[in-house]
Design goal:
Blueprint lengths: L6 H8 L7 E9 L19 H18 L3 E10 L8 E10 L2 H8 L2 H4 L3 H6 E11 L5 E3 L1
Length: about 140
């Protein structure tokens, strides 16, 4: 289960010398029922699905994303792999663009944004976040 970056992955991202726009590929596997045990103050009065909790997270997140110059390029429903482990599935696939790595961290470290991140924690069973940048030939490559 991978839900948060580690100190090592943050350092690797910072040391990657990424310049210019950055696109984050988000893959999420959602819980059937959202688990608000880590953030009971955000829990709704009655249980909700992981999908509903993730919608709450997106609604909370959008103002902070746009305030830092970011935008959602793609938000779609995933499924099982065509190539890869047959039992692996990703329910949500999203591409989020920021103008720079600094703008990404301004968004990700914003105190008011972090106050609502518990909806994502409650929603997600597992996740992946892959930074992407354009290489010098204009082709997308992993960061």
């Amino acid at each position: 289960m991978h839900l948060d970056p580690t100190g090592e992955t943050v350092q690797r991202l910072l040391n990657g010398n990424l310049t210019g726009p950055i696109v984050m590929l988000n893959l999420l596997r959602l819980r059937e029922t959202a688990d608000y045990r880590q953030n009971p103050e955000l829990a709704p009065a009655t249980p909700i699905s992981g999908s509903e909790a993730y919608r709450k997270y997106l609604q909370h997140t959008e103002p902070f994303l746009t305030a830092t110059g970011g935008r959602i390029l793609f938000l779609g429903q995933g499924g099982h792999n065509f190539i890869g482990p047959a039992d692996e599935r990703w329910d949500v696939v999203m591409l989020v663009e920021q103008n720079s790595l600094d703008d990404f961290f301004a968004f990700a470290e914003h105190a008011d944004y972090l106050a609502g991140i518990g909806h994502r924690v409650a929603a997600a069973e597992d996740s992946r976040l892959l930074p992407l940048v354009l290489n010098s030939m204009g082709e997308a490559v992993a960061g």
